[in-house]
Amino acid sequence: MKIGIASDHAGYDQKERIKKYLKNYEVVDFGTDNATISVDYPDYAHKLCNAVNNKQVDLGIAICKTGIGMSIACNKVKGIRCAKPCNAKEMKLSRLDNDSNVVAFSADMPMFKVKSILKEFFNTEFSNAERHIRRIGKLDEY
């Protein structure tokens, strides 16, 4: 599995921790490259989401100070369904029901939570239930 990851300056350190945890995966880093120069999170969300949509990566991870800005920016991109789960159960349901293809994290979420959420993100498949397919199809209609 190929994983894309991106952050703004506030999420840089968390991004680096997550990359170390993902040592058994192929990881493509879409930036930013440091924590000291202020950057705009939508620019990095856009790079990551384009890579997900273009199948350069299978799934994406986005990080900013709260995770909220990245989540909003990612969800503006057609075809992207970015979740910002608080726990593994929410991530599992987001994959099962919503076919989430990007996950957003806050810069200060503890790594034990990040790890449990990523386990569900990587190991839960979309249910393919007709009602969920119908609902997902509507997301890009509005």
Folded structure, characterized:
The chain is 46% helix and 16% strand. By secondary structure, it is of the alpha/beta class. The mean pLDDT is 97. The chain has a single domain, classed as Sugar-phosphate isomerase, RpiB/LacA/LacB (Ribose 5-phosphate Isomerase B, Chain: A). α2 crosses α3 and α4 runs parallel beside α5. A 5-stranded parallel beta sheet has the order 2-1-3-5-4, sandwiched between helices. The N and C termini lie far apart (31 Å). β1, α1 and β2 form a beta-alpha-beta unit.
* Category from helices, strands and their pairing: alpha/beta
**CATH class descriptor:** Alpha Beta
Report the C-alpha radius of gyration, rounded: 14 Å
Reported by name, the CATH topology is Ribose 5-phosphate Isomerase B, Chain: A
Mean pLDDT: 97
Distance between the termini: 31 Å
The SSE string, one letter per element, is EHEHEHEHEHH
Q: Kindly report the spatial arrangement of strands forming the biggest sheet.
A: 2-1-3-5-4
How many distinct domains? Answer: 1
What's the overall geometry? globular
- Could you describe the largest sheet, including whether it forms a barrel? 5 strands, parallel
- Considering the protein shown, what is the CATH homologous superfamily? Sugar-phosphate isomerase, RpiB/LacA/LacB
Give start-end ranges of low-pLDDT stretches. none
The total count of helices amounts to 6
Number of strands: 5
Question: Strand content of the residues, in percent?
Answer: 15-25%
Q: Assign a percent range to the helix content.
A: 40-55%
CATH architecture: 3-Layer(aba) Sandwich
